Amino acid sequence: MNQNYEPRSRYSFLLELLFRAFIFAFFWWLLTEGDTASWVVGVPTTVAATCASFWLSAGRSGKLRLAGAIRFATFFLLQSLFARSLFAAVVFFISL
């Protein structure tokens, strides 16, 4: 277990829960372009994403490390370039 872990108060836990749920609901609303019928799937998805985010971040301090963020951004950009070049190769060089 993490030595620096401090238990959260009930208020801070509830505040973080509501904030994460709001963020996930907002992203769902953006993805579905505001379609109200999509909330039949969106509510369970938002609840599952909120629960998963708490489960995956249990015991963490919540602080970002600059080196880790730079490594992730580099990896993401390289993978994006690879995927774009692979897609371009499929489109231009493979005939159906």
Give a quick precis of the structure.
The protein is an all-alpha fold. Helix content is 71%, strand content 0%.
Biggest pleated sheet: none
Q: What is the arithmetic mean of pLDDT?
A: 85
Order of helices and strands: HHH
Instruction: Give me the secondary-structure category.
Output: mainly alpha
List the domain count as a whole number. Answer: 2
- How many strands? 0
Q: Count the helices. How many?
A: 3
Give a written overview of the molecule.
This protein has 3 helices and no strands. The chain has helices spanning 10-31, 39-56, 66-93. Helices cover 71% and strands 0% of the residues. 2% of the residues are buried. It has 96 residues and is mainly alpha-helical. The mean pLDDT is 85. It has 2 domains: 1-63, no CATH class; 64-96.
Based on the model shown, name its key terms:
single chain, 96 residues, mainly alpha, 2 domains, 0% strand, flat
Secondary structure elements and pairings:
Blueprint: H1 10-31, H2 39-56, H3 66-93
Helix pairs in contact: 1-2
